[in-house]
Write a structure and sequence with these properties.
402 residues
Length: 402
Amino acid sequence: MSNPNGFAFYIPGALLMLAGCMKLPALWRNPKDELLRSVCVLLFVAACVFAVAAVPSIAGINRITGVPNMAAPVVYSILTAFSGSNLILIIRWSSGPAEATQAKRRARRCTWATISVIAAIWASFVLGDAPVERLTDLDTHYATTPFIREMIILYLVAHTTGAVMMTVLCTRWARVVHGPLRAGLVLIVIGYILNLVYDALKFTAIGARWSGHNLDHLSWPIAPPIAAVSALLVGIGFISPLIAQRLINLVSPWRQYYQLQPAWKELRVATQHSINLARGLRTPIDVRVCQLESDIYDGILTVHPYLDPAVHAHSLAEARKTSLSDEDAAVIADAAALAHAVVLWTRRTSEPGAASEEQLGDKPVLTSAVSAAGLVLLSQALHKSPIVRATREAAVLESSNR
């Protein structure tokens, strides 16, 4: 990644810039969303890191400004801004609504600290003297030059401090979260461990110069590829949970739709279809789910007079024997009572004069059907539970013998 053409820097930089541009419409719609704003800043700053750190860009900055090594404070400032933007994002990302004020205060302090370091970098460059252009080895070539030396050490110390803080914060947070967020945090931690390796190589090469030795190869060409991979991993680590959450939001309604199918099929015979919202293949999935839930509730209401408390109690006891939690056992009991009621209702509608006494007495309350999540659990129990299957088969056998 240290090639003179800079493609290994420009390609990931372009990808990060594209990811940042894709976030701009959302930021335009929600300009007060501080987390989204921090994500956009991070992506654009990361893209700038790749854009200015390539050898052709360094040479171009020096040539355009007419100042030898002007690219040095530019690159160091952007690297410092990248570290600061990472800290600000992780502060806002890991803070809940109750900590919003505290997070804003911490982010403000981090912003001012980053600005102060950048200002010190530029002041050191202005006070120093670096007349000979160095495109790849400025850190080691000017390691003993007054003020330029301080500029180099300042950015490395700021970079190392940011890497240590990010590693600690993300490691601590990754221990208490799961799924895509945890995977993203792991990528960020790996990226910042590589950052620390980069800093260690730089410090070692500079320290060697101070002691009269030459380990410049650690600073270049070994260190820059590590930094580039680090920045890429950190950028991916931040955006991957956001992309994963968007995919989950897209897939979740479809998953819910198919999970509700068993309950809909079970109650289809008792559904009245008083309102039909879903019309054709072009109907949005949210509308389809709403229609399915409406049909299921309609069917439950229809067969409710035939819910048998004895069947519910027996199924609950059987479910508890299988070491299920109280919640799971209650869902299975609800599903068994519902499947039994559907069979009784079907027999009653086919034989109008039969078993009117089933409508009497207190009926069990289907507690699992009071929420969308509970309805999904009820549907899956109707489809998978052997207790529900046995109850349904017994009810069918009983009805056929009457």
